[in-house]
Design a protein that fits this description.
The protein is an alpha+beta fold. It is built from six helices and nine strands; from the N terminus they run αααββββββαβββαα. InterPro entries: NERD.
Amino acid sequence: MTTGAGGAGASAQREYDRRKANDEAKTRAKWGRLGGIAVALSDERQSTAAWASGAIGEREVGVALDKIASDTVRVLHDRRIPGSRANIDHLVVTPHGIWVVDAKRYRNRRPSLRVDGGIIRPRVERLMVGGRDQTKLVEGVLGQVERVRTAAPGVGVRGVLCFVDADWPMFGGDFRVRGVDVYWRKRLVSRLLAETSTGIDVEKTTRLLESVFRAA
């Protein structure tokens, strides 16, 4: 089941609304009596629009996760990381352990793994999205995974990047980069449903996560 007060994408939507209001206020101040027209004719700043897109991605992944929530699959959305301005998009607790899920919406762009070296030179794995290096997304998930491991010692934790509206191939496509799984929504759900281990107290672990990572 889904627990806690956090709604998927809620904090990203609030940030988008705040930025949009600020942008419009600046435009109105600049153009005076013509401010309303200027706002209507102005294109939205890319940095502002990105928050709206992010909120959509988080909500869509959240809907998919909520559909499989049960007594043995607990879902927490939009959780604040203590001492940080960052949030964890989704935490999923199963009898197997904890999944840290970071939702990303990159429309019509294909995620892929690039590997350099590995024989003479050290192996270096990179996440590419639409041909651009986006390994920073992997580093962000790894940081979240470490925070969750610290909060729940002894419980297995794995990180996932879940891409929404990406250009996935017809067959296959998922991969792992630096220990982080890269999935689309249906693949993530199928992996969660395939978990068979029964070593984790789901209810106790969920309560622990709720106490450490509050709803954003």
